[in-house]
Amino acid sequence: MDKIAELKKTLVSEVEYTLDRPPVNLGGQSCGTPCYQKVKLTHKELDIEISIGYHRSQLKNKILATTLFELVLDDIIF
Predict the structure, then answer these.
(1) Cβ–Cβ under 8 Å, residues 46 and 19
(2) Helix (H, G, I), strand (E, B) or coil at 29
(3) Within its chain, how far is the Cα of 66 from the centroid?
């Protein structure tokens, strides 16, 4: 069980986070509507890409993406 936890920690540490910025609303009907930045989590070796833009907060989106990644790892390992 310890080996699985160590493997999971190393895989989570190899994750790269990037921000996808939304396009700027210059005017018209879409002016003033909220556009949240998406956090994109990628793991190149496993070819996993998760993009989350649900919350306003980048930190909450990053935590949600990391949680989803850990659930995917649990599904792959077990």
Answers:
(1) no
(2) helix
(3) 6
pLDDT at 64 over 90: yes
What is the spatial distance between Cα 21 and Cα 72, in angstroms, rounded to a whole number?
A: 25
Of how many residues is the chain composed? 78
Residue 61 buriedness (CB in 10 A; 0-12 / 13-18 / 19+): buried
The answer on pLDDT for 11 being more than 80 is yes
pLDDT at 22 exceeding the cut of 90: no
Whether the predicted model's global pTM rises above the 0.85 cut:
no
How much of the chain exceeds pLDDT 70, in percent?
87
**Distance from C-alpha of 78 to C-alpha of 66, rounded to nearest angstrom:** 18
Rounded-to-integer distance, Cα 22 and Cα 61, Å: 15
